Amino acid sequence: MATVNSGLSINRLAGAVGAEIHGVDLNQLDDSTTKAIRQALLDNGVIFFRDQQLSPDQYLEVSKKFGKPVEYPFVKGIDGYPEIIEVLKKETERANFGGIWHSDTVYQQEPPMGTILYAKELPPFGGDTMFASQVAAYNSLSDGLKATLSSLTGINTSAKAAVSKTREDRVGDSGSKADDLISYHPVVRTHPETGKKALFVNVAHTERFDGWSEDESTPLLQFLHQHQIKPEFTCRFRWSVGSVAFWDNRQVQHYPINDYHGYRRSMHRITLAGDKPK
Ligand SMILES: O=C(O)CCC(=O)C(=O)O
Ligand SMILES: [Fe+2]
């Protein structure tokens, strides 16, 4: 069912996560629409808009209504806009940016609250992005495992082997390896705005549990990594040029599907500052 609010309609995409918002021009946001959009983000974990036209200046301005744009730790911004990076896969490339289930840059002390992605150029097919609700994933665990996880801290690193393939930890065009970033965050975090609990480990960044060896951590982490992306916790977004996705990095993970070799895909991306997970 669509919810209508001053011309804006919110259409859920799946049972656990994701909604498309229609009837909004992001360049014309008044206060009540901005508030409704923020609530839709909190309620749905990720929201999508279609047919938007955003110059870099307009894009930055829109993002500032929802948070504080920050630079990406390992990637330089587009000319003149340090907070906007291009997420690009060229015709000739095989790896895609972020091509593994993750939430963004969890190895930071204060990982982003959200990320906004704007589609500029797309392949003729493929290149969808999937999202998974970590609130739904947490809620479906047994009380016993919830209790065990509640006391655990995850150690997250930018240096896991799997992620290096996805180029998230490379510096600019040089492809050189950045210094490793490491963070300690609760395995279950409480959302600062909704109060809901969410799993906050991910296969791209979480190395082990604090106080546990890697060997000891791996079986439980592997279970969680399989569990947290079950189809019933996910939605899948089919992009068109001008589409915008805005996800809440505190409650969802995402996975850009790398199924369009030989074609170019270019997105503009803005990261919004977050707080220390608790
Ligand atoms: O290209 C995408 O759809 C998402 C890439 C990604 O992981 C990100 O921008 O954080
Ligand atoms: Fe990402």
Automatic annotation (TrEMBL):
Keywords: Dioxygenase, Iron, Metal-binding, Oxidoreductase
Residue stretches making up the TauD/TfdA-like domain: 10-271
GO CC terms, sorted: cytoplasm
MF-aspect GO terms: 2-oxoglutarate-dependent dioxygenase activity; metal ion binding
Cofactor(s) needed by this chain: Fe(2+)
Pfam families: TauD
InterPro entries hit by this protein: AtsK-like (IPR051323), TauD-like_sf (IPR042098), TauD/TfdA-like (IPR003819)
Similarity comment text for this entry: Belongs to the TfdA dioxygenase family.
UniProt-listed PANTHER family: ALPHA-KETOGLUTARATE-DEPENDENT SULFONATE DIOXYGENASE
Protein name: Taurine dioxygenase
Biological source species: Neohortaea acidophila
